[in-house]
């Protein structure tokens, strides 16, 4: 055991298809620290999935939320985005896309459900939860973590009192978790970011991004990380409920297929390039979460239809290192071999 008496191998809190009680529980039961990506979950679903995790394992787990994102409605931009989606909807045999009735879940209600679920740790991305909220959660007994993509963010999170900072390198899959400056200005690799944060902060740093095997774990520890967070590699374990189309796309992708895109959500995220990312490359889109909500029906239908060109194939740059079949417990064991006590 290491940081806060938790294992050194953490599963990244992946929202979307990987938000599965089966997967989170398998990681924790297998000797790692599973985390539920709850950003898109209704409060009732957070309660339900957390209870399911507890029914499957008595080991600790974490829950992750997106900090509230300031955004302005962009009716014209959203209409233009819906018009582009309409072409792909037609190909999939779907009705024409419509303006979403709801763009995002209520953050305060999500947080209340998370608190009631009593995970071992609550982590945040895309913002600073603030000193008052951090202190209130810590008073309730929670370990609180924030996510930084640059040193200035790490310092802000430390000033707010978080227990540790997750250093999200440029290589990591999914949405960029930064909140200061522009996403393009915070594209710092894990190898460069982790030691800078370790030197700048007085609290533990957890390395994330581009770590997929024991070598990456050892490298992160050598850079001063107190634990590592692994995402993409867990997408391909037996317990992860990815759609067959998503799984097949990950297995077929080459190293150079990794891309940063706003195409599906309006916020910069890393995944495997496909038709949607290529056809929307360089276009100005409405701010997150407007495209994210608008494209959800297409993504869900495409997953069922086996059409990977219309799915957000979030994955990190270490994807080609992540293709050994096996269980979550086997992956945790393999990664742990890179960590020395």
From TrEMBL:
PANTHER family, A to Z = NITRONATE MONOOXYGENASE-RELATED
Q: Which UniProt keywords apply?
A: Detoxification, Flavoprotein, FMN, Monooxygenase, Oxidoreductase
Q: Give the highest taxon in the source lineage.
A: Bacteria
What stretch or stretches form a coiled coil here? none
What are the required cofactors? FMN
Tell me what organism the protein belongs to: Roseateles asaccharophilus
Tell me the InterPro entries matching this sequence.
Aldolase_TIM, NMO
Entry keyword Phosphoprotein? no
Under catalytic activity, the entry for this protein gives:
3 propionate 3-nitronate + 3 O2 + H2O = 3 3-oxopropanoate + 2 nitrate + nitrite + H2O2 + 3 H(+)
The UniProt family comment states: Belongs to the nitronate monooxygenase family. NMO class I subfamily.
Which protein are we looking at? Propionate 3-nitronate monooxygenase
- Which GO terms label this protein's molecular function in UniProt? nitronate monooxygenase activity
């Amino acid at each position: 055991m290491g940081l806060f008496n938790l294992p050194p191998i953490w599963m990244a809190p992946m929202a979307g298809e990987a938000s599965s009680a089966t997967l989170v529980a398998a990681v924790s039961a297998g000797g790692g620290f599973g985390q539920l990506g709850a950003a898109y979950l209704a409060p009732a679903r957070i309660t339900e999935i957390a209870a399911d995790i507890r029914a499957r394992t008595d080991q600790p787990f974490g829950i992750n939320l997106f900090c509230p994102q300031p955004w302005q409605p962009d009716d014209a931009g959203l209409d233009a985005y819906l018009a582009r989606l309409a072409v792909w909807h037609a190909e999939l045999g779907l009705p024409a896309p419509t303006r979403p009735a709801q763009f995002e879940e209520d953050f305060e209600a999500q947080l209340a459900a998370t608190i009631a679920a009593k995970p071992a740790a609550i982590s945040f991305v895309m913002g600073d939860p603030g000193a008052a909220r951090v202190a209130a959660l810590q008073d309730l007994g929670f370990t609180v973590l924030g996510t930084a993509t640059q040193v200035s963010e790490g310092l802000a999170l430390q000033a707010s009192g978080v227990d540790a900072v997750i250093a999200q390198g440029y290589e990591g899959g999914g949405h960029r978790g930064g909140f200061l400056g522009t996403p393009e200005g915070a594209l710092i690799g894990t190898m460069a970011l982790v030691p800078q944060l370790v030197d700048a902060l007085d609290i533990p740093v957890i390395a994330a991004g581009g770590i997929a095997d024991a070598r990456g774990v050892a490298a992160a520890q050598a850079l001063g990380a107190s634990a590592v967070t692994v995402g993409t590699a867990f997408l391909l374990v037996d317990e992860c409920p990815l759609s067959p189309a998503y799984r097949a796309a990950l297995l077929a992708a080459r190293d150079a297929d990794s891309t940063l895109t706003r195409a599906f959500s309006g916020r910069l995220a890393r995944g495997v390039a496909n038709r949607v990312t290529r056809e929307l490359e360089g276009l100005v889109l409405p701010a997150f979460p407007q495209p994210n909500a608008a494209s959800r029906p297409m993504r869900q239908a495409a997953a069922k239809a086996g059409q990977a060109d219309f799915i957000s194939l979030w994955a990190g740059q270490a994807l080609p290192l992540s293709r050994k079949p096996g269980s979550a417990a086997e992956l945790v064991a393999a990664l742990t071999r890179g960590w020395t006590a």
